[in-house]
Every structure is written in C-alpha cells, then in structure tokens.
Fold:
Amino acid sequence: MKLQKPVTVPKIEIYLSRIQQLSQERDDEDWEFRSWLKQYAPDDIDGLVKTWSQKYFALIDCTQCANCCRSLHIEFEESELHSIAKTLGQSIEAFEKQCMSEGKANPPCPMLNGKLCSIYENRPEVCRSFPHLEQPEFTSRLIGVIDNVAICPIAFNAFEELKAKLAWPHA
Structure:
C-alpha cells in the first residue's frame, strides 16, 4: 500500500450534528473518493478498513450514541424476528403490526431503551455488524458505507482516515 507522507489524520469527530454537517459538505468529495477507490483500492483494503474500524470502535462508545438505532429502518431475518418478538412477549404478527412497515422496523428501534439496546446480548446480526465496515468486499459496498458515514461516528472517522491515508490525489 502506498501512503502519503506526511499523513495528517483528521481529528476524531464524535458529535452527531457536526458529523452530519461535515458529511453534507463532503458529499461530492465522498462520491469522488468512492469512484477513485473502486479503481485504485490497495489489495489489502479490507484489512486496512478493519484496522481503522477496530480503532474507532475502541475510541467511540456506541452506547453513548445509538444514532443507528434511532434513525435506520432495519430488516431482520425471520429467525431473529421470532426471537425479538418472543423477548418482547409478543407474537411475530403483533410485533410486525406495531413496530414494522414494509418488512422493516420503524425507527426508533423498538428495542431501544434510552441509548441502550434492551436485547443487546441477543441483538440481530445487522445490528451487531453495523456500520458493516469489517465485512469483506469493502469496495463493493461503498454506497452503503457513504450512507452510514452521515449516521455513525465510527464509520465517519474510519472513512475520513481512509481518505487521509491512502494516496488519493484529491486529499
């Protein structure tokens, strides 16, 4: 991997209003970076993104944010839906009628209690893996990544570090 020297890593952003503002301001830049990355991503991009994802997971406490739980329409697997309904003491039908539309949970997530998940230990896989930075084939999922940058401080900071550290000619 070719790195720029010297590399200036942006300061960590944790405030959602600032992240949303910066994401809006940098939207065109993010899409340009996406196009560049699709062509010039280093072979070890999945490993690099995983490293930065883990770095920001260690620095940012998701339980102090819960923006994903408050803003996303989540689609659950059928087996997860059964488990969630059972945990909440409802039938699947009652849960779907009360908490879902078009097959997705309406935000805020019905399992959210303040900023904490009431079924955290048994939360669905889509929740466990959010913001999905550590999944393979990073460059094939960049549209979703860019969407998550405006929602999640971990995704925002990891993406900004990625832009700063790769030899992207725009940066």
